[in-house]
Design goal:
The structure is a homodimer of 244-residue chains.
Chain A: E1 2-7, H1 18-26, E2 29-33, H2 34-40, E3 48-52, H3 57-69, E4 74-78, H4 88-94, E5 102-106, H5 111-119, E6 120-121, E7 127-131, H6 139-151, E8 155-159, H7 169-177, E9 186-191, E10 199-204, E11 217-221, E12 227-229, E13 232-234
Parallel strand pairs in A: 1-4, 1-5, 2-3, 2-4, 6-13, 7-8
Antiparallel strand pairs in A: 8-11, 9-10, 9-11, 12-13
């Protein structure tokens, strides 16, 4: 019995790896969050597709496990990479009682990388990836990580910068980072990566406080060495870069 | 005039996105580090391929720029993602004097994600990516980042954990992290991701001090919540996970 957890990349068939496509093609059933199932529906005509609404992650995993137990080869899909805030972790947890099901994770392109490509080259040096969602993590923990990352001059990539209930979290995060970094640092916003209405914008850390974002937005904040070149964010690979 | 910087993913055609393949197919010339050019040589019979040895990154960029200036569509390839310690940043820097050349970065799967998939689900919560190479970054800066990441309980992914000249850097990094984290934390090592001799190993932070690594190794260190499930590293998505 085999259960795959597959990263679809940022959206759109051209960002799904041949490995992921091969796995999805060989599966009897593909399960996932409704929005992602809808994105790939036309790629798999006739395939059994199971979708569940947002926030029902554990239910989604149980659905996939039931299918596997009944003898089907199943793929559970995530957008981006299956591991980065994706379904891989909760799948391992949920399938704990079913050692007879073999689990394999298939990597995809995560938003830090697909968003980074649109913004230029912000991730050419050390970076921290932080989710601003406090659904499962206390805000104090998120704040401590923002502080640590800013203080140590990491490039910072923010996932889940806002939701309906958390409209001011990006402003709060920016304020925290500005305790240690200049408000003039280059920053970038990417929306709806890999979809028709994909857009990106290069701005500054200070300006992030005023920019509306949603759950389909990824935010990038440069380190002290990040510059703007051709309107894009470019982080040098090191601190002695100029001398080489 | 168009110059692409393309991430090949971890190695092997099945991890190259259709988008990246389409770009490489349309290019007149593909340039890159010898090892990566050799990996894709058979995928592009008849294509003009230019390879340069390691450490000649700027020369490689200049080579690609010359080709673009002479009217060719050029792709410069990186392994993994083109942005994460890849060639995208140095390309933007080197091409500064040539605004007539349009640059586009094409994302690929970075080792944090491909390695993470092999190790289970280590990146399901906030993580820091740190390179242990001190060729362009002072060791003090690397040490400060290791400390900050460990103190704030990030999952930590280490790139370039060693080279011929830096055989003890992983041991030093592990010692630094152990000032703040337990030596019992789950840790993982992935070697030669996506190649024939790919291998992975789950171990502990303390044990990392004794494990030999090279430049084709990626190292993952869990956070305080990371567990071993089925011999794999699994980081829960949050700190209130058990209660949901």
């Amino acid at each position: 019995m085999k259960l795959f957890v597959v990263g679809l990349g940022p959206g759109g068939a051209e960002q799904i790896t041949p490995r992921a496509m091969a796995v999805l093609n060989q599966c009897d059933v593909i399960a996932g969050y409704t929005v992602y199932i809808d994105l790939i529906r036309e790629l798999f005509p006739g395939k059994r597709l199971l979708d569940t609404p947002m926030k029902q992650e554990e239910k989604r995993c149980r659905l996939a496990i039931e299918e596997a137990l009944s003898g089907n080869t199943v793929a559970l899909v995530s957008s981006g990479d299956a591991g980065v805030y994706g379904m891989a972790g909760i799948m391992y947890e949920t399938a704990r009682e079913f050692p007879e099901i073999e689990i394999e994770v298939v990597a995809g392109i995560t938003a830090a990388c697909s968003g980074g490509a649109l913004l230029g080259a912000p991730l050419s040096h050390d970076f921290a990836v932080i989710s601003l969602s406090d659904l499962l993590t206390p805000w104090e923990k998120i704040e401590a990580r923002l502080q640590a990352a800013a203080q140590a001059d990491f490039v910072i990539c923010l996932y889940n910068p806002a939701s309906k209930k958390r409209s001011d979290y990006l402003a709060r995060a920016s304020e925290i980072i500005m305790r240690f970094q200049s408000g003039d640092l280059p920053a970038g916003i990417v929306r709806n990566i890999g979809r028709e209405d994909e857009s990106w914008q290069v701005t500054t850390l200070a300006a992030l406080r005023e920019i509306p974002v949603d759950m389909f937005t990824t935010v990038m904040i440069g380190n002290s060495q990040t510059r703007i070149i051709r309107g894009k964010m470019v982080t040098p690979r090191g601190y002695r870069y100029e001398e080489t």
